[in-house]
Design goal:
Blueprint: E1 4-6, H1 13-22, E2 26-28, H2 30-48, H3 73-84
Parallel strand pairs: 1-2
């Protein structure tokens, strides 16, 4: 069973059905991996410059003006993922 490669552009309905109903494996394409790495490098650059970045160095929604310290950045991102996983079982 060949994996379905995710690149952010070419996923078809047929591929989606293979993944959701037929349990095909999923992998990021090499291009998608490179894009993630490039984005991560950009975020790291912005953090080093102490830029204000919504949802990374600030809270979310009505807390967008709340500054998040560098010591709390990882916890904020963890909390975001956990909040979206609410109701689906153990994180």
């Amino acid at each position: 069973m060949n994996p379905i490669y995710l690149d952010g552009q070419s996923l078809t309905l047929e591929d989606f059905i293979k993944v959701t109903r037929e349990n095909y494996p999923v992998q990021l394409s090499p291009k998608a991996i490179q894009q993630v790495e490039t984005s991560r490098q950009q975020v790291e650059t912005f953090l080093a410059q102490e830029r204000i970045i919504y949802g990374i160095t600030t809270g979310f929604g009505k807390f967008c003006d709340v500054h998040i310290s560098s010591e709390q950045l990882e916890q904020l991102q963890h909390n975001l993922i956990v909040s979206h996983a609410c109701g689906i079982g153990e994180p």
